[in-house]
Amino acid sequence: MNISFSAPPSSLRNASPRARIAAVADPDSVEWFPPAGASPHVARYGVSPQEDDGIVVARMRLGGAAMLVAAQDEKYLAGTVGERHGIALQAMLAEARRERPAAIVLLLASGGVRLHEANAAELALGRALAGVLDARADGIPVVAVGVGNLFGGTSVLACAADRLAMLPGTRIGLSGPKVIESVHGKWELDADEERDVEAVFGAKARSAMGFVDLLADASDAVRGWVYRAARDRADFATSVGATHALLRTRIAGDPTHAAPFDTLACFDGAAPVDNGGRLWRRDECWLTRPNPRTTVGPADVHALDDVLLKHVASAQPGTPDVLLLVEDSAGHVVSRAAEMRFQSQFLAHHAAVLGLLRAQGRRLVGLLTGVGHSAAFFSNAMQASTLYALSNARVVAMEPASIVRITGLPAGTLIEDDPLLGQPVRHLMAQGGVAAIVPDASIASLGL
């Protein structure tokens, strides 16, 4: 694979998605995929649909090697991932597993899940996250460049790549500055203070802490980095192990939390396999514990991954080949401290651990017993091949106050009855995200 740097440098930060792809690709090598299709959901908010739904996908060559590439458009609804946008990502990742290109390249600039399409969008992004990890497990390098700001679920998607780089002036994090300020006040983080925000989320600060690579905003710099990152990737299992060890150093000494949970029938006859009771075992399956009414922080996620890698990924023949992910939490921790530890990477790593188990032939089954909340949900139980739910379960893609702020609509009955914004699990089931609503949490109801 030979790579030429003869083209004059050009900025990607201010370019359109198509121009970004053209700047990275060899001359005259781009073959565009059909547009994702206009969103059928945004017109009711007074938003004009865009035919590509904020994402452009193409085949290209870089240094003569065939690659698939996707570029997001932050000028359309902040690059947020809507249903059509997410499905286009999924389709590209599935095509990559058929074509086996030299790499998948993600040029990302997004505010995360498109809250106007809450349930459908969260499902689409969760499946795209699984697609990234399945491609990596198949031996296809996935490299990501933050060409714009990356927040929410897209920051998790970015961290799920083999390697991640950011352009100068960009920012990345799970909970944005205004979200942290709204929860804790300006004493925690002043969203109007640029230096404070940059110190937490800025690409330069993230690079200084060793979380991402910092690239010059020039096509040659990006081309060279993509080439080297794809060439030098480790195999998936090795990468998961190395990331796990790296994250351990980041949360050394941080406390973990294990909230008590109500008795669930699936735990009848099960016994915990670790002191924290995060992983349980019975003859039919392994089970992870729910965390009702409790937020999940980086140390909690890492502690669960510890036991999954120790007991499930390394299990001997004769042990269960089913992992039941029991979901119920108040979502991820929203705090400056969690963002300083780069919480997005912990959730991405957790999804990667689940991807490793999937690649090993383990069957992942999700059971939503209470609340499935935002990124904590789509990086966990939504990564299962089959998801079941109890009838009173709820999916919180966004809180009522955010519905009012983002959509301009009063929350009112939308929280209960709207197909996209409604929280009762029947709405996610209607979107195809839940296989069945079961009468109880027994192993028999789950067919295990």
Brief characterization of the structure:
With 448 residues, the chain is an alpha/beta fold.
Please outline the helices and strands.
Elements: H1 17-24, E1 31-32, E2 55-62, E3 65-72, H2 83-99, E4 103-110, H3 118-137, E5 142-151, H4 153-159, E6 163-166, E7 172-173, H5 177-184, H6 194-201, H7 203-208, E8 213-214, H8 219-231, H9 236-250, E9 271-272, E10 279-281, E11 286-288, H10 298-312, E12 322-327, H11 336-340, H12 343-359, E13 363-368, E14 371-373, H13 374-378, E15 386-390, E16 394-396, H14 400-407, H15 414-417, H16 425-430, E17 436-438
What can you tell me about this protein's structure?
- The chain is α/β, with parallel strands linked by helices.
- The chain is built from 16 helices and 17 strands.
- It folds into 2 domains: 217 residues, 2-enoyl-CoA Hydratase, Chain A, domain 1; 199 residues, 2-enoyl-CoA Hydratase, Chain A, domain 1 (Alpha-Beta Complex), CATH 3.90.226.10.
CATH architecture classification name of the largest domain: Alpha-Beta Complex
Oligomer: single chain
Mean pLDDT: 95
Largest sheet: 8 strands, mixed
Helix content: 25-40%
C-alpha Rg, in Å? 21 Å
